[in-house]
C-alpha cells in the first residue's frame, strides 16, 4: 500500500512538473507562438529563438518588452516570412510598434489589429497584403506612423482617418486605392508627410489637403487627381 501511494505521488509530481513546463510561458509568449502558426515560411533564426519553454518572449528575436514582460515591439523586417497576419495579433494590448515590412505576407489586414489600442508605429510595407484597409484600424487614436506602401491594398481610403489626431506620417504609395482623398484627412493636424503616389485616386487635390498646415512632403504622382496649387503654397 505504501509503495502504491509513493508511486501515485511520484506520478502526480511528474504530471505537475509537466504542466508547469508547458504553461510557464506568459500570455504574450503564447500569443506569439499562436501567431507564428499562420506563417508558412519562418527562418531558423526565429523558430530556434521562439522557445515555448521560456517564461517570457522578451529575449526572442524581434521582440521587446516593458518591465512587466508585456510585448511592446514586434519587429521582423526582411526575414522572408510568408503566410498571413492572423487575428491573434489582437492579443497584444501593450503593443506600440508592429514592423513586419519587407516580407511575403498575404491576405487581408485583420480588423482585430484595432485591439492593439496603444499602437503608434505600423509598418507593413513591401508585402502582398490585399483588400481594403479596415476602418477599425484608423480608430486607433495613438497611431502616428503608418507605412503600407508596396502592397495590393484597394478600395477607398477610410474616411475615419480623421480620428488619427497623432498621425505624422502616412504612406500608402504603390497600392490600388481608388476614389477621392477623404476631406476628413484635413483633421490630421499633425500630419507632415503624405505619400499617395501610384494609386487610382481621383478628384480635386486641395479640397482634401488645404487644412494640413504642418504638411511638409506630399507625393500624389501617377493618380488621376486634379491638381491646382496656388503660387506660394507650402505644399
Give the amount of beta strand, in percent: 15-25%
Low-confidence blocks of residues: 3-22, 231-235
Global structural class: alpha/beta
Put simply, the count of helices is: 4
Please count the beta strands (DSSP E, at least 2 residues each): 16
Strand order of the biggest β-sheet = 1-4-6-8-10-12-14-16
> What does the average pLDDT come to?
90
Estimate nothing, just give the exact number of structural domains. Answer: 1
Largest sheet: 8 strands, mixed
Radius of gyration: 23 Å
CATH architecture annotation: Alpha-Beta Horseshoe
* Strand/helix succession: HHEHEEEEEEEEEEEEEHEE
Q: What's the CATH class, please?
A: Alpha Beta
Look at the structure and name the CATH superfamily.
Ribonuclease Inhibitor
Indicate the percent of residues in helices.
10-25%
Distance between the termini: 88 Å
Tertiary shape: elongated
- Find the CATH topology: Leucine-rich repeat, LRR (right-handed beta-alpha superhelix)
Amino acid at each position: 500500500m505504501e509503495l502504491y501511494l509513493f508511486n501515485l505521488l511520484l506520478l502526480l509530481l511528474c504530471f505537475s512538473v509537466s504542466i508547469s513546463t508547458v504553461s510557464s510561458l506568459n500570455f504574450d509568449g503564447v500569443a506569439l507562438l499562436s501567431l507564428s502558426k499562420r506563417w508558412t515560411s519562418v527562418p531558423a533564426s526565429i523558430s530556434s529563438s521562439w522557445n515555448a519553454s521560456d517564461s517570457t518572449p522578451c529575449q526572442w528575436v524581434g521582440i521587446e518588452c516593458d518591465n512587466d514582460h508585456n510585448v511592446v515591439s514586434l519587429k521582423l523586417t526582411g526575414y522572408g516570412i510568408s503566410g498571413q497576419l492572423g487575428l491573434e495579433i489582437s492579443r497584444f494590448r501593450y503593443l506600440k510598434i508592429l514592423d513586419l515590412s519587407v516580407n511575403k505576407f498575404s491576405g487581408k489586414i485583420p480588423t482585430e489589429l484595432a485591439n492593439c489600442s496603444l499602437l503608434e508605429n505600423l509598418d507593413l510595407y513591401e508585402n502582398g497584403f490585399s483588400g481594403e484597409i479596415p476602418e477599425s484600424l484608423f480608430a486607433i487614436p495613438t497611431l502616428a506612423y503608418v507605412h503600407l506602401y508596396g502592397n495590393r491594398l484597394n478600395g477607398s481610403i477610410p474616411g475615419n482617418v480623421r480620428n488619427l489626431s497623432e498621425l505624422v506620417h502616412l504612406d500608402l504609395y504603390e497600392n490600388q486605392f481608388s476614389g477621392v482623398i477623404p476631406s476628413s484627412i484635413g483633421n490630421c493636424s499633425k500630419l507632415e508627410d503624405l505619400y499617395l503616389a501610384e494609386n487610382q485616386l481621383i478628384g480635386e487635390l486641395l479640397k482634401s489637403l488645404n487644412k494640413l498646415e504642418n504638411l511638409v512632403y506630399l507625393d500624389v504622382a501617377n493618380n488621376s487627381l486634379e491638381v491646382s496649387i496656388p503660387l506660394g503654397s507650402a505644399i
